[in-house]
Amino acid sequence: MPELIMHFVSPPTPYFIENGTHTFLPGERHLSRQSIDVFDIIIVTKGTLSIGENNQDWILHKDEAIILRPDAHHFGTAPCEEETEINWIHFQTAGAWSEVSSIHECLENQAALFERHREQAYLCHSEICSFFLPKKIKLSRKSISDLAELNSLDKDPCALRNWKKQTAFQIFMQSLTQDSRPSTSSTAIQLAEKIELFITQNFTSKITNSVLQEKFNYHPNYLAKCMLKVYGVTPIDYLMHYRIEEAKKLLIQTDWSIARIADEVGFSNPGYFSSVFAQKQYDSPSTFRKKRNMEK
After folding, report:
1. Average pLDDT of 228-246?
2. Is the preceding omega at residue 2 within 30 degrees of 0, hence cis?
3. What burial letters (b/e) apply to 2-19, b meaning 16+ CB within 10 Å?
4. Scanning 40, 89, 153, 155, which has the fewest C-beta atoms within 10 Å of its C-beta?
């Protein structure tokens, strides 16, 4: 059976709904449930749990977890042979997600998932990104500690507990992502992420293929190949996209002139900025601003 990968797009970040614990006695099994409308993370903290989803099944041992889909049939595939304890966490996302058979398939389908994400999630002028989680996960000490912190919050009053649990859940999810990184990462992904970070931190400066080659010590063709694989665009295309996204924010949030905004986001020539903006947004900067102001 392939190592299934859960591919999420954010923002919005997946959000916490509720959590709890359950103990299965010998001879008991997980309930059969159909399309519960939330993602369900099941973490075994003691014993062994046999569980299935649609036409696949898994055996979870202590400190192993599985992410069950909101739109599938979940069921116990065999009774527990010993007392088995689990933690469960329900969460949901307003963004796009998919389940595929490999990280390579995630990257191949990323552009289409991004497009679906823009259609169903509220995104005005926000950059989006992916994160990947194996469907079945072995928890690290850090993840186990973060899970314990989430469980400890049940002692707080409800109003305070809900805020704290959302934060604790996000920390736990981040730990799971880090746990899975060695199996879902590659040199190309790591390099693409470094390029993306360099661009977002230096987008107002002059960035060329030569600058990137000197910074990362790789030929521009290889840098472009890595970025295309992970982000679906070349470094320079990503730079232009990021500058335009930043310009959109300034057009909406300020009354600065087009020339000043062009300069603020790294364009030395206002005319070239307007040309690139119109090419990507199908509107001039001034028309984009007028339409957004009318929507307020």
Report:
1. 88
2. no
3. eebbbbbbbebbbebbeb
4. 155
Among candidate residues 1, 198, 9, 217, the one with its CA nearest the CA of residue 107:
9
Task: Supply the Cα-derived Rg of the chain in whole angstroms.
Answer: 23
CA 249, 254, 259, 263 torsion-angle sign: negative
C-alpha span between 109 and 106 (Å, rounded)? 5
Q: How far apart are the first and last CA of the chain?
A: 51
Given a contact cutoff of 8 angstroms between Cβ atoms, the answer to whether 240 and 127 are in contact is no
Sign of dihedral through CA atoms 146, 41, 109, 275?
Answer: negative
List 107's β-bridge partners, or say none.
none
Please state the rounded mean pLDDT for residues 101-123. Answer: 80
Q: How far is CA 106 from the centre of its chain?
A: 12
Asked whether the beta carbons of 121 and 8 are under 8 A apart, the reply is: no
Query: The pTM is what?
Result: 0.74
Q: How many residues does the chain have?
A: 296
| Separation between Cα atoms, residue 20 and residue 151, nearest integer Å | 8
Cβ pair 290, 258 in contact under 8 A: no
**Confidence label for 1 from pLDDT (cuts 50, 70 and 90):** very low
Q: Do residues 135 and 98 touch, judged by C-beta distance below 8 A?
A: no
Q: Cα separation of 257 and 253, whole Å? A: 12
Three-class SS state of 119:
helix
pLDDT band for 281, please (50, 70, 90 cuts).
confident
Half-sphere exposure of 252 (CA within 13 A, CB side): 14
The predicted-structure confidence for 40-77, as pLDDT tens digits, reads as follows: 999 999 999 999 999 999 999 999 999 999 999 999 99
* 86/24 Cα distance (integer angstroms): 8
> What SS3 class is residue 34?
strand
